[in-house]
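Risk register update: the risk of archive-format incompatibility is retired. Evidence:
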Amino acid sequence: MKLLAENELIWSWVVANSKMNRERNASGVNSYEQELKFKPEEFLENHLHQTGQVKWLDLCCGQGKALIQTGEWLLNKGLQDKAVLRGIDLVDAFQPIPPHITCLDFEVRSLVDWKSTVQFDLITCIHGLHYIGDKLKVLVSVFECLTSQGLFIANLDLRNILIENNDTEDYLLDIFEKHDVKYNSRTRILACKGPRQIDFALTYKGANDEAGPNYTGQDAVCSVYEVREPCV
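Archived output:
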């Protein structure tokens, strides 16, 4: 099994051809609502009424259609000046932001070296982790930048992670349970409320882009780790 480094993985045909989240709506048909079982715009409004402001970060946001729709929704509610919406994707395929939407910005970048000094009330990653190499590094960064009542929710297939010489699912589920991170093995939804500092005690070795389809039916990237030796 050939493992790719991060700088090689971003050119992989599996990552480049990923269309899982390109045109997804905020709510309704083919939407974040269908994936997450709640409407992002309603979540933001409820949070805003409690705290007076709200920030949503959408990782692997595709065209950013859901963010633009939510910006429009906030504008119509007279709440745009109290919200910050941000989308990040590896590919610059974002839809144009209408000039009257001032609470939204997009950024083109890889997530594996991403860190944020800003804390967010909602962080989503819809079918994006399937195509990332060091998935656990991204999770660590995300957990750390949630507000005290912030929610992170994402699709994660544990079969796209391999910990050499270990039962990967048992290893990760044990860590998730110890840190009160929820994972639904049926829906493959991971959720975390409030910030966490987690050390998975693993060393990332590389990614296999020939792992084949995962539960979505689309080809995905398998991230390979080994247990890190304790310091003596």
